[in-house]
Amino acid sequence: MLIREEIENLEKNMLSPFAQLSSESKGRSCQENECDIRTIFQRDRDRIIYSKAFRRLKHKTQVFISPEGDHYRTRLTHTLEVSQIARTIARSLRLNEDLTEAIALGHDLGHTPFGHTGENVLDELCPHGFKHNEQSLRVVDVLEKETGLNLSFEVRDGIRNHTGDVIPQTLEGQIIRFADRIAYINHDIDDAIRGGIISEDSLPKECVKVLGKKPSERINNMIVNIIEHSRDSGMVKMSSEFQQAKDELRSYMFKNVYVGSKAKRDEMKAQNIIRELYKYIKGNPDFLSKEAEKMLVTADLDRVVCDYIAGMTDRYAVKKFHDIFIPESWH
User: Fold this and answer.
1) Taking a C-beta distance cutoff of 8 angstroms, is the pair 170, 136 a contact?
2) CB 20 within 8 A of CB 9
3) Structure pTM?
4) Beta carbons of 225 and 156 less than 8 angstroms apart
5) Any residues with CB less than 8 A from the CB of 307 and at least 6 apart, and which?
6) Left if phi > 0, otherwise alpha if psi is -120 to 50, otherwise beta: which for 50?
């Protein structure tokens, strides 16, 4: 028996009846020979980790644009924290941890430079619209390795629906929706306190009373609450009390950090960089990278320009803006 087959048998014997078994995946768009060692979801996880889009996350904004300190989160560290939270929940509920991890690692691959600021500008400029979850799916389906990563249906479904109105078809995918918010609310509070934007004492007292005072307390309490209310239910859910406290804490962050705070003081500059790059490159398609130029065979210019800018890191976008619009000193 192959090692992969042994793992698939272990899943059948050990996982919950509600888990998505690797052996029962709906498969890939393009059929492939199975790996002798890894299950389909383990292969998907590895393909995401080795992708260029995953490596670029280390230089993409989470909340603070180009922070000076080394301890502020980036899109990559956010992704790793989501993965840790999601895997803990999945393992405790006896769901498929490999599937959960693959979705977690791929869920933000489509994020733009400068975080949601860049996302909003591209949504405004591109006739096709722009949502980072849809772009994450486009990255793994089309843009990586020129033909995509050919991931399984379940991983693609989880990536596409980690946010928005459509609920993932697997419980593993549903875990990511919770893990994503648990991670960003708490690590953004930590970063905002470090940056002097808010103080620990300014957090809504009722939320702190329910969820906990410290980030580690809140994360642990929310994870435990999900596990207790989801076990053997065929659903992933929080108690109504915890759900309300989490939503109120999120609203507090939008009011005090995400919109109009000192953390966003350079937001207009970032928006201008994205806007001017889009207009210039659309008018001068020769400026596209060779990889992006190849996409013009199957996609229109707006779509390709949008893909090209969305794939940039913060510092690469700044460099390209400098190259185009800032005059060089005469030597």
Assistant:
1) no
2) no
3) 0.97
4) no
5) 135, 138, 143, 292, 295, 299
6) alpha
DSSP string, 103-122: HHHHTTTTPPTTHHHHHHHH
What is the CATH number that goes with domain 3-113+132-262? Answer: 1.10.3210.10
Q: Which residues of the chain have pLDDT under 70?
A: none
Domain boundaries, the chain: 3-113+132-262
Cβ contacts of 272 within 8 Å, gap of 6 or more: none
What average pLDDT is seen over the chain? 96
pLDDT of amino acid 69: 77
* Span 50-89, pLDDT tens digits: 999 999 999 999 988 877 778 999 999 999 999 999 999 9
Q: What DSSP designation does 288 have?
A: S
Residue 164's Cβ-side half-sphere holds a number of Cα atoms within 13 Å equal to 16
Q: CA 177 → CA 89, 113, 132, 160, 297, distances in Å?
A: 12, 22, 14, 11, 35
At 226, give phi and psi (nearest 5°).
-65, -45
Token pair of 144, please? Answer: 């990586």
The sign of the torsion formed by the CA atoms of 306, 307, 309, 313 equals: positive
